[in-house]
Structure formats: structure tokens, C-alpha cells
Design brief:
The protein is built from five helices and 15 strands. The protein is of the alpha+beta class. Strands 5, 6, 7, 8, 9, 10, 11 and 15 form an eight-stranded mixed β-sheet that branches. Strands 1, 4, 12, 13 and 14 form a five-stranded mixed β-sheet that branches. A hairpin with a 4-residue loop joins strand 13 and strand 14.
Length: 305
């Protein structure tokens, strides 16, 4: 049989490939720590006259204890202990350029349009915030674990002990890299005692978010794969901490914002157009700061990567 109408013969009439109308997001770590209950939010500081917020503490409520005093003896006044930590906000930003041709050929349900690019700024800000928090793990004075050695149950016990000896109020939470979590699970399996690792539950996810992977020794464990490396890439610098360890603040840029989008802070989006190149510019900015407030309330967990 000859002269059939075959697909293979229609090269001039058919596209080599087609793009699905719906685009899939590329694989990435999209864990966001905005509004996590273990982090102390100092608020939106816009319009308050400074880009630095100062948080003070005072030694009352049992900080100083009474002392025995002999009959008819005078007592000496005990001074009140105070301290303060400052936190500065700074700009975090991202810019997208999209040509007219790229936008006009984009499917109606595509992602190369101004609205989609502006909305993406919120996700970019959230990921930057997560990275900024993750970087704090290597800054705590107390550290458990050994370089080049897998995380173990002993490391986890040691971190909990440091916080308990420091009178740090709970509940405690651990931000760990996936490799650290895997090594911890392997170590738990090798234990013969009554230790129980509780995989994530609906209640845990509701309490601490989708990053939750489980609970061990009463400590919530979150997988944060943006945990940085340490010791020239040999290790990961995770952390465990209690209330008061980490603080953050942000600020809204007056007159700008992504309407209707719930974020941990304020993400501003500005649009521009370059007539010489035919490019739309979409710039997102987020003014925020994160830092350690109470060093004793956190423990670095540095183990093999």
C-alpha cells in the first residue's frame, strides 16, 4: 500500500513537540518557616523611625532568689539584671525580565506573565527567609556532634540535655538536614531500649507545618534541606532550640505589596518596562532580619553530611 497519510511524512505540518498548557514546578526545597511558633516575631517595624529593633529582657519573676538574713541584720539591695539584643532588617530581592515575545507566546495558563511572576516573588521571599534562619545553626555557642560522624541518638540526647541544664523552656524543635534525619533514624533502629520515634502526624503538621517529619524525645523534627554545610563541606550544621532562641522582624514598603497574599511579612513588587529591549521587569523586595536572641537557648548540631 502506498500514498498513505502518515505522521512521519507530515514534517512541514507538525511541530516537533508541544508544551503542555500547565507547567510543572521544578523540584526544589520549598519549606517555609514563616509564622513558625518556635520563632519569635518582633513585628512589622515600618514607620517606627529606624531599621533596627531592640529587644530587652529583665531579670524578674524569680531570676534572683532570696538569701538567708540573720535577725536584726540589714539586707543589701540586689540590682536588677537587664540585657538587650538588636536586630537590623535588610533588603532581600529578586528580578525577573520577560520579553514581549516570551509573554505573547505564553499559553494563557502559563507562568510567563506579570501576575504569575509577581506572585512568585512571595515564594522567593519565603525561601530566602528559610535560608536565613537555617544559617543560624552554625552560630550557637553550644554544639554537639563530631565532624565526619553521622548523627546519632547520643547527639540528640546531648542536645536536649544542654537545653534542659540551661533551664530553657520548651517545647523544643530541631531543624535538621535530610541526611542528618536519615542518620538519626538509622541510629534509632540500632537501639535496643524503649526509645520511640513518632513519624509525623496530622496534629504535628498542623502545629509546625509541612516540614515536620516526626518527633523524638518530645522534640519536633523538621526537615530543612537549606541547612548549610560546615567544616569545608564535610558536615551539616543543624540545630535544636527552645523558646527565645531565634527572633525575626520585617517591614512593609509603603504603597507596594502583593494584594491578597498571606505572607510572614511584607513582599513588595515593582514593575517596569524597558522600551529599548521590549522587556518587562518584575522586581520583588523583602525587608527582613533574623538573628539569635538567646544564645543559651539553642544548640548547634554539626554532623556528617
Amino acid at each position: 500500500m502506498a500514498n498513505e497519510i502518515l505522521y512521519a511524512a507530515l514534517g512541514d505540518l507538525r511541530l516537533p513537540s508541544i508544551l503542555r498548557a500547565e507547567m510543572d514546578l521544578s523540584i526544589a526545597d520549598r519549606v517555609t518557616l514563616w509564622e513558625h511558633p518556635a520563632l519569635t516575631y518582633l513585628g512589622d517595624i515600618a514607620g517606627q523611625g529606624s531599621d533596627v529593633v531592640k529587644r530587652a529582657s529583665i531579670g524578674l519573676g524569680g531570676y534572683d532568689e532570696m538569701a538567708a538574713v540573720a535577725e536584726n541584720a540589714a539586707i543589701v539591695a540586689t540590682p536588677i539584671t537587664t540585657s538587650a539584643v538588636t536586630l537590623a532588617i535588610a533588603r532581600q530581592a529578586i528580578l525577573r525580565n520577560a520579553s514581549d515575545l516570551a509573554r505573547l507566546t505564553d499559553p494563557k495558563t502559563g507562568l510567563i506573565n506579570v501576575t504569575a511572576l509577581a506572585g512568585d516573588m512571595v515564594g522567593s521571599a519565603a525561601m530566602r527567609f528559610t535560608t536565613m534562619v537555617a544559617l543560624l545553626g552554625g552560630g550557637f555557642s553550644n554544639v554537639v556532634g563530631s565532624t565526619g560522624v553521622n548523627m546519632s541518638v547520643d547527639d540528640f540526647f546531648a542536645a536536649v540535655l544542654v537545653l534542659e541544664l540551661g533551664n530553657i523552656p520548651g517545647p523544643y524543635v530541631a531543624f535538621l538536614h535530610g541526611q542528618q534525619i536519615g542518620d538519626l533514624r538509622t541510629s534509632i533502629r540500632a537501639e535496643t531500649g524503649p526509645l520511640i520515634y513518632v513519624p509525623r502526624t496530622a496534629e504535628l503538621i498542623e502545629r509546625v507545618g509541612q516540614a515536620a517529619v516526626g518527633e523524638f524525645l518530645g522534640v519536633d523534627i523538621l526537615r530543612v534541606n537549606r541547612i548549610p554545610t560546615a567544616n569545608a563541606g564535610a558536615d551539616r550544621a543543624g540545630m535544636m532550640f527552645g523558646q527565645g532562641a531565634i527572633q525575626w522582624a520585617d517591614a512593609a514598603v509603603p504603597g507596594l505589596g502583593v494584594a491578597g497574599m498571606v505572607t510572614g511579612g511584607r513582599v513588595s513588587v515593582a514593575l517596569g518596562y524597558d522600551v529599548k529591549t521590549g522587556n518587562v521587569e518584575v522586581a520583588g523586595s523583602y525587608y527582613c532580619g533574623v538573628g539569635v536572641y538567646e544564645d543559651a537557648a539553642g544548640v548547634g548540631m554539626v554532623t556528617d553530611s
